[in-house]
Design brief:
By secondary structure, the chain is an alpha+beta fold. It has helices at residues 30-46, 74-91, 101-105, 124-140, 155-160; strands at 13-19, 50-56, 60-66, 117-120. The protein has a four-stranded antiparallel beta sheet with strand order 2-3-1-4, covered by helices on one side. Strand 2 (50-56) and strand 3 form a beta hairpin. Helix 1 packs across helix 2.
C-alpha cells in the first residue's frame, strides 16, 4: 500500500491539481462551474483560505491556496470542496462515472480521482512559476490560442491588477516546469 506524504506547513501556500474520475470532461459545464464555485465558497466560510489562482479545465483544475497563519489542514479543505461539489452536482442532475472497487467499498461517488496532487510553494519565484503555469494551462492543452481568451481562470483578475499584459503567454512562460495533469 502506498504511503502519501503531505507537506503540511501552517499558513503555507500550496499548488493543487485535482482531476475528475476517468478524466470526465464535466468541469466547464454551467452546472459544474456553479457547483464548484459554491463548494469553494462553502469550504472557505468554515475553513478560511485565500484562492491565489485557479484555472478550471474540462477534466481537471489547478489552484493555488494560501492558508491562515497557524493552520496547515489543506486536505480537509480539499475534501470538503470535493464533497460539496459532488452533492450539489448530483442534486443538479449531474451524473457519475462507474465507481472503482475502492470507491464502492468506501461509499464514494465516481466524480473525482481519489486524492489530489499538491506542491508546497517555496518562495515568491516558485509562486510566480505556479501562477504562470496555472494561467498558461488552457494554451498548453490547446483549448485557446491566447491566455486572455480563456474565461475560467484568475488570469483576468491578475490582468486587472496589472500583473500581466493581455498579450502575455504567447509562448510557454515556464518551460520544463511540469506539474501533474
Amino acid at each position: 500500500m502506498r504511503t502519501y506524504i503531505r507537506n503540511y506547513v501552517a499558513g503555507g501556500t500550496f499548488f493543487f491539481t485535482v482531476v475528475t474520475h476517468d478524466r470526465a470532461r464535466i468541469l466547464t459545464s454551467p452546472l459544474a462551474r456553479g457547483c464548484l464555485s459554491t463548494a469553494i465558497r462553502q469550504a472557505r466560510a468554515k475553513w478560511p483560505f485565500e484562492v491565489v489562482g485557479v484555472v478550471l479545465l474540462p477534466d481537471h483544475l489547478h489552484t493555488i491556496w494560501t492558508l491562515p497563519p497557524g493552520d496547515a489542514d489543506f486536505s480537509l479543505r480539499m475534501q470538503k470542496v470535493k464533497e460539496n461539489f459532488t452533492k450539489a452536482y448530483l442534486a443538479g442532475g449531474g451524473h457519475t462515472g462507474v465507481p472503482t472497487l475502492s470507491q464502492r467499498e468506501h461509499g464514494e461517488r465516481a466524480l473525482w480521482q481519489p486524492r489530489f496532487w499538491e506542491h508546497t510553494v517555496r518562495d515568491e519565484a516558485d509562486l510566480k512559476r505556479c501562477a504562470d503555469y496555472v494561467h498558461w494551462n488552457p494554451v498548453k492543452h490547446g483549448l485557446v490560442r491566447r491566455v486572455v481568451e480563456y474565461p475560467w481562470s484568475t488570469f483576468h483578475r491578475y490582468l486587472k491588477m496589472g500583473e500581466y499584459e493581455a498579450t502575455w503567454g504567447g509562448e510557454d512562460p515556464c518551460p520544463g516546469f511540469e506539474m501533474p495533469e
